Please model this.
Amino acid sequence: MSTVDAPAPPRTTTVVPAVAPWWRRSAPWVLLAAGTLGGIALQTQLYTAQERVVGTVFMFVALATAWNLIGGFTGYPWFGQVGFFGLGAYVTALCMYHLHLSFWLSLVLSGLVAGLFAAFVGVPLLRLKGHYFAIATLGVAEGLREVVLNLPRATGGGGGLTIPTLGPDAPTRWLGNDGFYILFLLIAAAVVAVALAVSRSRAGYALRAVNQDEEAAAAMGINTTRTKTLAFTLAATLTGVVGSAQAFRIQAIYPDPSFDTSITELAVIMVMIGGAGTVLGPILGAIAVQYMSEWLRENYTNAHTFILGALIIVTVVLLPQGFVNYLGDAVKTRRFSLLDNVRRYRL
Amino acid sequence: MTQFVQATLYGLLQGGLLALVAVGFSLVWGVMNVVNLAHGAFVLGGAYVALELHDALGLDPFVSMVPAAAVLFALGYLIQRYLVNLVVNAPIFITLILTFGLEMVLENLLRVWFTPDYQSIPTGYAQDSLRLPGDIRIPYGKLIAALLAVAVTVALVYFMRRTRTGLSILATGMDRGAARLMGVKARHVYALTFGIAAAMAGAAGAAEGAVRTFSPADARSFTLFSFVVAVLGGLGNMWGALYGGLVLGVVMSWGSQLLSGTMVNAVAFALLVVLLAVRPQGIAGKAFYASRVEV
Model:
């Protein structure tokens, strides 16, 4: 006889985790495989000089994608990427020149050394933020170059080292233009595959959380130091592998070109123009910037850095968030105006 | 002993000039949170203005510090007002890349106009030395350059602290929103800050032109040294830029006595990385996030 109604039984709703359908989840992988096969197919249409140019594009796809792991996902301005590139190049050169190890073993060793070094310096460096991280990593890269330059007995100093690639002394024969095209294509594909795996994983979301608000991420239970160091180590390992392959391709390596800051700068620009924190962005950015740079160098030899610089300025003003991020936002909000885009960040 | 004193004096003179090279870089960074990678190109711009004035009118490079500063001020003001202000609120990468693009453009222009060759501005006295007891020599050129550089840096500090314009720049650097509410025109103040920084770079460039050879390829190393000095001294801290410049100059000068080749640069960078890890606010400054601009 109670006047109070019994509480309504709780409605049972089964919570379905939001998982994208299988074809959407596997689409990036299918695209990656298709892109790799397309790269192999493209090779048949190229002559030697073009092969070299496209091989360099693949190299920058790999470098930009590796940079994106720490610079794009985590938002740490890593201005010392070339340090690990040069480290990989010199580890390979030293292994092949002094120890007569095969290139493939040297390639693995280069990645390992670069990764270990990154893990070692990463712990103190990743405590720094913003511009301080940028200059400290730049300092590590410059410091490495000076060390290589000043150990002439091992590294040949400024005179450089020439990896033996022909004759009985050569631990591994030079791969030829065709071989290096395929090698760089496979390295680029592997690095992109790593980025794809990271992007969808728990670690990838942790990295993005660190980017948005590091303290909040730590409060949510993310071990930020470990996450950042892992990403940094991974990015450095991949960069070291790319440096190793490049060293074997050019054979004669010198400290200045191996530790050239403009390699880092190009990678940063490619990621920023393509779209930081996405997998597709760095790939598109690398292809666009490297192709543009090559084309300008050929057609406007004297003014090519002028035009490239001006293009970078215009792109950065019009698309500060990068092409892929702009397109994503624009499609979602149906606002395609570039002027709105400029208004967002101006004073 | 003589060698040690000589190296120290050289380092101090070099450091005084480095302070003027870097002070504008530090100012822009501290006030606007913009790392200006084109700073080195501005320094070279000043050097080439002095070179042109010397060739055309026979003007002494130290006198040319004034017109060089004026030209660079105008350039800097326009660049900030109509270009950098467009993206000044974007993440730091964006301004970094923008100024990187700017550096490419400026360096290419310098190379086309003035050729990539190394050039110098000859003066009648810069190579002569002042002899001190104990066989210590100080070249007049380096002495004048360092003294002028320190004087200009100190003058800038007083300008920032004592004038209305300087105070409005500092206020904008501390809290832009509050400064705008007080009637400060932030766009103009930012452009003015960038202009002043470029003017300092131009004056430094003219002085550098008197004591060393230069080519457009030096832009990078000027930017890098500015970076190191600004970090050593603490951002936006103009006294800090002076200390940072002097410390860097002396350390590099000692290092080149003790170490072979260019190993001294490795030591300088190692020092920088260790310093950053231990004391990110610089050797002279307070923590920069507590009060971003310490003048």
Observations:
- Chain A has 16 helices and two strands.
- Chain A has one domain: 25-345.
- The beta strands of chain A are 161-162, 252-253.
